Amino acid sequence: MNEVGTNPYYQNLLNQLKESYHPDAPYWSQMETELAADEFSSESKTGWPLVVVFFRCLQSTFYFGQFLFIGKWRRLQKAKEFCLLSSQEQRVLEMIQKEYSNKEIADALF
Q1: In 69-104, which positions are buried (b, 16+ CB within 10 angstroms) versus exposed (e)?
Q2: CA 7 – CA 3 distance, rounded (Å)
Q3: More confident residue, 106 or 72
Q4: Mean pLDDT, residues 84-106
């Protein structure tokens, strides 16, 4: 689309459409409208890619920070819950997490 304004091909094609079709035909008027829109969009895109890249990087940094913060917060919550248990309950919990059976837990504790 960068060459729309500089390449004469598109303007020549538009002139051929105007000559080939009836003046009220939508073909050449649609192409004329699209060429004007393409020329406008190609002229106005000079600084936008950098702005978009900047905001995408900023957004990614924000989401990554949220991910790290939430992960750390969850670890702290688990640590707080773990500290609320007595030492005996903590040992039982560790054995349950290691998938010990009730008999193995009882044998180890008593």
Answers
A1: eeeeeeeeeeeeeeeeeeeeeeebeebeeeeeeeee
A2: 5
A3: 106
A4: 87
The Cα–Cα gap between 99 and 92 comes to: 11
104 lies in some domain: yes
For the ranges 3-17, 35-49, 51-65, the lowest mean pLDDT is seen at 35-49
Count of structural domains, the chain: 2
pTM beyond 0.70: no
Q: Tell me whether residue 55 is in a domain.
A: no
Domain that holds residue 98: 63-110
Cβ-contact 1, 37 below 8 angstroms: no
CB 109 within 8 A of CB 91: yes
